[in-house]
Amino acid sequence: PAVLGPFPLVRPFSGEFRFGWSDIGAASARARLWYSGDSIFVEIEGRTDGLARALWQLDARHKAVILKEGLKPVAFEQLEKYAKKRVRTEAVFKPDGLWRIRAVTPGPKDVAKWKKIKVEPVRDIISAMLFIRSQVLNDGDTIGVVAFPGDAPFLVEVTVARHEQIRVAGVSHKAIKLDFQIRRIEEKKHRLAPHGKFRSGSVWLSDDENRIPLRAEVDVFIGYVYGELASLRFD
Questions:
Q1: Apex CA 46: angle with CA 41 and CA 47, to 5°?
Q2: Tens of pLDDT along the chain (235 residues)?
Q3: CB-side neighbour CA atoms (13 Å) of 25
Q4: Quick check: 210 and 11 in contact, CB under 8 A?
Q5: 3-class DSSP assignment, residue 20
Q6: How far apart are CA 55 and CA 100, in angstroms?
Q7: For residue 87, what are the β-bridge partners?
Q8: What is the pTM of this model?
Q9: Residue 178's closest CA among 208, 211, 203, 146?
């Protein structure tokens, strides 16, 4: 059921994250979350760095608006700039469902049309993360969420693996380890399909009053990829 858990909302914050491919530093990102009225606002900017950028150039920006009540998504927009193309995605959560438009430049002009996603209930990535964070998260708990990152809806199944200590940037933290699996929802065929590039993943949340993501590890088609918190400031 799409019922929020008892854990309170996160405090407004700004954070920096670093990402790696195997043992090679590959990317960085900055995230900010704040409140205004009855809404939550999130902005994230990231880019590939160093050797990874020479192989795969990417600059990305993501903005999202979510209602505090029920953590219901309102809208998001995302811009991805690659070496030879640009992808812009906009999504609006209306009373009749989720509508999105996705434009690739250069690309066929007739592709950029508004499309309704015929899967409900569905959340954007940010509200899905906040929803999972709100739950009790006892060891062994499982949570399923349908999330839409921009190209297709996915079923995200999360299992609370255990509560443990983890070291991030040389500092030990109490953390909650969440293992997750992702499967694509094929709307026309009414079935689930494996994600073509994702194999398995885990994320660690701080086991305190903040529940901030500390680290993520993912096994994908190019190998082992990780991301971790570099700095954090509560506003």
A1: 165
A2: 789 999 999 999 999 999 998 878 899 999 999 999 999 999 999 999 988 899 889 999 999 999 999 999 999 999 999 999 999 999 999 999 999 999 999 987 656 789 999 999 999 999 999 999 999 999 999 999 999 998 899 999 999 999 999 999 889 999 999 999 999 999 888 899 998 888 899 999 999 999 999 999 999 887 889 999 999 999 8
A3: 8
A4: yes
A5: strand
A6: 30
A7: 80, 104
A8: 0.93
A9: 203
How far does the chain reach from its first CA to its final CA, in angstroms?
32
Which residue in the block uniquely carries the two structure tokens 């009540």? 69
Six token digits for residue 9? 């909302």
Tokens 């500390």, residue?
Answer: 214
CA distance 87 to 56: 15
d(CA 226, CA 166): 14
Look at residues 53, 109, 98 and name the one whose alpha carbon lies nearest to residue 76.
Answer: 98
Distance set, CA 86 to CA 23, 29, 31 (Å): 28, 19, 21
